[in-house]
Amino acid sequence: MNAQLLVEIYVFVLAVFVGFEVISKIPPTLHTPLMSGSNAISGITIVGALLAAGSLPGTLSGTLGLIAIILAMINVVGGFMVTGRMLKMFKK
Amino acid sequence: MQDIFIPIIYLFSAVLFILGLRQLSHPRTAPKGNTTAAIGMLLAVTATLLNNQILDFQTIFIGIVIGSAIGAVLAKRVEMTSMPQLVALFNGFGGSASLLVAAAEFYKGEPLLVFTLATIILSVLIGAITFSGSLVAFSKLQGIMRGAPIKFSGQHSFNGLLTGVVVLLAVYAVLDPAQASNAVLAIIVIALLLGILFVIPIGGADMPVVISMLNSFSGLAACSTGFVIQNDALIISGSLVGASGIILTDIMCKGMNRTIWNVLFAGVGYDAEASPLEVDPMKTVKSYEPGDTVVIFENAKQIIIVPGYGLAVAQAQYMVHELQELLEGKGVIVKYAIHPVAGRMPGHMNVLLAEANVPYDSLYDLDQINPEFEETDVTLVIGANDVVNPAARHDTNSPIFGMPILDVDKSQTVFVLKRSMNPGFAGIENELFYNDNTIMIFGDAKDTVSKLVSELK
Description:
The structure holds 2 protein chains of 2 kinds. Chain A is mostly helical. Chain A is built from 4 helices and no strands. In chain A, helix 2 runs antiparallel to helix 4 (60-89) and helix 3 (46-55) packs antiparallel against helix 4 (60-89). By secondary structure, chain B is α/β, with parallel strands linked by helices. Chain B has 3 domains: 1-77; 82-265, no CATH class; 290-456, Rossmann fold. In chain B, strands 3-2-1-4-5-6 form a 6-stranded parallel beta sheet. In chain B, helix 5 packs antiparallel against helix 6 (155-175) and helix 8 runs antiparallel to helix 9 (232-255). Residues 272-276 of chain B have low confidence and may be disordered. The chains are: A mainly alpha, B alpha/beta.
């Protein structure tokens, strides 16, 4: 097992703990925006999609990357926009 | 230089995601949190475009424009009642994007390390299950497919067999990475099938659990894709989303007093045509016209409104808010009691009420409000059923026994607004309706509430 992989596993485990800590403090009132917002965050896979589509043009991988960009962007833009739309409605 | 610079930006965007989620802990700071997370995403995309491996900006530009346009239209057009479908759809898109990124890495044709191949297989597996499972959940919520569980004999054994085949194919692929191509393709196809088979036996009422879980899966898919392309931003963000989905799944299961295994594998669901409910003809209910109730409302000190999904279906939330303001003008305290599984996804009812301008500080969750029913003069149940059924507290034979409920029966008078005596999602009789202090008001919820409003004026 190489050192970089080990570091990645460290990062993963610690991030899971941070996730549980942060998310468990979010009140039930905001659970729907939390879901749509976390949808947007899971669109981070756009990073991989950009690399695949941009670095391998004209290949099968490049095409798969392009489709992945479209799908991930729907998630990112749609997710943040709809979350913003909902959060604006919450008034005291 | 870019070896250090780009990962630092990724770290920065991961930090912004975490800060954004932290600001989501209060409705006041939440809009800022959303912006914070969006800036994090913008940074991550920008950093990626700085990578000198990227040669073809035109393709990228086209992809970004198409995806953004579709996302923007969906986000602008969606009705708040349809939010669960949209989230289901987004889960599916996220899962499939991760699946495609992992597949793209595989089809590059470069020799792969065993570990990388293993993570690719994990990514395509989770991604494919998330994709097809989410599409089924979407179809059920949207009414394209029937909500009732779809079951066939030997279903569990068949799913088990398919899972076994996936494991064997994965082992085969990892043992001989050079010949893995067909095995990976087969894994994708079987995983897509598994996603479908795994969601079709789950009833419509359990969809909140399923979309919470698929939400978690879409995060885990991104996370494992992070291992494939060795990118910490994906690993961190994916883990955050994974954790979020797990927490929400747990809350939904507890709200129904079910285990996740029961939700996933028991195929619980009510089919109105297949099993009509037998009602004891000896039991009677009291029923009033809206006009008869005005005096009771006007003399109340505190009123608790219990909204269920039926309220949103009838689009009565705006009228209910008008009723609230009218009563508050007469000095009555009005509170809303929100059960964890009210609505069709976690927190759905809160959004539906927020849309109708109901202030969030009049909304109370189960633990906060239950002690208050005893001192409440009037409870108004609108379109909720199983979550107010006292049988959950004492009737060990009831299918909902043990489920946490709102103790509405403890208040002095309970008004139940209902279209007819039809049972709720679980298809069981509600003994609340027959209590001495319960009064039924039959009719469309919106009509009834607007009649109440005009009488009170």
